[in-house]
Amino acid sequence: IDNLAVSGHHARVVEENGTHYIEDTGSTNGTFINDMKIAKQRLQPGDQIRVGKHLLVYEDETATSKPKPSAAVVPVGDKTILSPPPRPGDQTLRPAEESRDALPGGRMGVLLVVAGQTDKNEYKLPDRVSVIGSQDGAAVKLTGWFAPKVAALISRNETTYFISSSEEGKKILVNGVSVQGRSDLKDGDLIEVAGVKMYFYLRHPAS
Q: I want to staple 152 with a disulfide (CB 3.0 to 4.6 A). Which of 62, 83, 132, 141 is the partner?
């Protein structure tokens, strides 16, 4: 990783009895899991690993027999989010199709904007990582004069959606409670960030 904030030997991922752990190897600036600095921690699907300016999303490909999406790079301001590559031979679905799979039961996350400046009133969230911000390519485009490039991230795994803060440090509220690190999203939750209020719903993609 080419970044001055990343040490020559920054961190390592090890497998112990079939479980993956990430361990900081004495880096200068530290390793963060879901915005919490760690020395060593077990990895769970959907965990966000921050190394310097880069954000990596961990997925356990052995947790399900369903093919995984191909590696993708999602720009987050001047940073990147990397999603995991597929296992060899997983060619059942094309990458674009896989990244848009719904949750079990065919449900997909949807945001309904009720206050604030955005380019649309409703947004579907089919991708593994969706950016809320003013940057080009943001899934939820903020249009206010002082809207941050990246206000928040909404990620998903096979079973749930969750919201997390960006390095810009914008305050996020879910049902009036400040989010520290990340917070799972439930049907009907009210999200407030960067002057925008949105309800999160789980719907069938056809609805």
A: 132
Please state which CATH number belongs to domain 108-203: 2.60.200.20
The set of residues, in sequence order, having a beta carbon less than 8 Å from that of 17 and lying 6+ positions away, is none
Q: CA-CA distance, 111 to 114, in Å (whole number)?
A: 10
Under CATH, which number does the domain 11-58 receive? 2.60.200.20
Through-space distance between the first and last CA atoms of the chain, rounded to whole angstroms: 42
- 46 within 8 A of 55, measured Cβ to Cβ: no
Query: What's the rounded mean pLDDT across residues 14-42?
Result: 84
Q: Look at strands 182-185 and 140-141 and give their pairing.
A: unpaired
Residue 108 contacts residue 102 (beta carbons within 8 Å):
yes
pTM score, whole prediction: 0.58
Mean pLDDT value of segment 151-165: 88
